[in-house]
Design goal:
By secondary structure, the chain is an alpha+beta fold. 52% of the residues lie in helices and 17% in strands. The chain contains nine helices and seven strands. It has a six-stranded antiparallel β-barrel with strand order 2-3-4-7-6-5. The chain is elongated and about 80 Å long.
């Protein structure tokens, strides 16, 4: 995915802004008016009981937007905690709130939580290969490359692409996953040498293998220098960048044009 899915972005924003919406809606049913209601709401003795309704939706919204494995569990925990707290709050205010109001809130919350349990949605949080928008910009490269592992045996390949954090080598010789290798190639009469860790993906290891650069000053300096040169040459790979069809307006239109 070249763009963070718009449904997740919208749900994140809705969750973050929902405490403000709840304050406004609750003030409509209060004889005090919005200003007075907000003032009373934020008094210490009231805030001590209401803080979960302010902060848990915000935490859930941030978790949705981050799209990490840990954020998935934080979201589920925050929403379930909010449901439990809302239920006990309803028990204390059953005469004021009404069963229909609580039932509607319960159904909406359960429905949203259920959406994140759908396998295709849940997979976005657990499979980083789907989150192309998080990846560093990649550049085309096709130089002959030499690489060698811990045993020192030198092997040959062709550079496929490169970013500031790693590269891809096309080769029939595939090192072991997670093994450390040294890579060397020449670009514009300058020799580059990188140390990195082999990363194998099931869908691409028949073509070659990826290398994630180790975090050291030499790798960082060389990668930034090379990427700057490739960027000036216009060798950016645009297939992973957001396209016109990924724009929000286009996505909204597609909702009404789908059959």
């Amino acid at each position: 995915m070249r763009q963070r899915p718009w449904p997740l972005v919208i749900l994140a924003v809705v969750h973050i802004l929902s405490p403000l919406g709840n304050l406004f809606l609750n003030s409509l049913f209060s004889p005090m008016g919005f200003g007075r209601y907000v003032s009373v709401f934020f008094q210490p003795h009231n805030l001590a009981n209401q803080w979960p309704h302010l902060f848990l939706p915000v935490i859930a919204g941030i978790a949705i937007y981050r799209c990490r494995p840990w954020s998935f569990f934080i979201y589920i925990f925050a929403m379930l905690a909010l449901l439990v707290i809302s239920y006990f709050g309803y028990q204390q205010r059953v005469a004021e709130v009404g069963l229909w109001s609580f039932g509607l809130i319960f159904v909406v919350n359960v429905g949203v939580v259920g959406y994140f349990l759908v396998p295709t949605v849940r997979k976005i949080y657990f499979d980083p290969r789907l989150r192309w928008w998080e990846a560093d910009t990649r550049y085309e490269a096709s130089h002959p490359v030499k690489f060698k592992g811990p045993l020192g045996q030198e092997k040959q390949g062709i550079l496929g692409n490169i970013s500031v954090s790693g590269l891809f080598i096309k080769s029939a010789e595939i090192p072991e996953d997670q093994s450390l290798v040294q890579v060397q190639f020449t670009e514009a009469n300058q020799v580059y040498t990188f140390q990195g860790q082999v990363v194998l993906h099931q869908r691409v290891n028949a073509l070659g293998f990826g290398i994630h650069f180790l975090s050291n000053a030499a790798n960082k300096r060389q990668a930034q220098d090379l990427v700057r040169k490739l960027h000036q040459q216009g060798k950016i790979i645009r297939g992973r960048l957001p396209q016109e069809e990924d724009q929000f307006v286009i996505w909204v239109k597609s909702l009404f044009l789908r059959k």
